[in-house]
Write a structure and sequence with these properties.
Layout (H helix, E strand, L loop, with lengths): L13 H10 L19 H18 L3 H21 L13 H21 L6
Length: about 120
Amino acid sequence: MAQRIRRPTTLVGDAEREADMDRTPARTPPWGRGGMPRWLGQLPYVFVLFGVASGLAIVATGHFKKGSALLGAAVLFGAAARLLLPESQVGLLASRKRVIDVMILIGFAIAIAVVAYVVPGNKG
């Protein structure tokens, strides 16, 4: 167990307590600094996850092309959200620089759409 090392202070009494109070970080309100709740910043990420899960469920029921199209659309929505929204509102979609994130997501969306179009299978 790590021990906390205290720095020696030259302050005494009330002045020491005031100095300690000045060093405590300010608490961030539950709605964040922008005036909106923090959980709203995760909505684009949740929409992408829901679209991917729905697409995979549709693929699992035997409709490969429909499910893959939904999967590609969800990833493309993630790219659009990452491109258009500020970093504070995209949640976990922001993991690298904006340009890198957008290029990777667009590349995945195109790859999924191409595979869905090229693979022979059901017509719908």
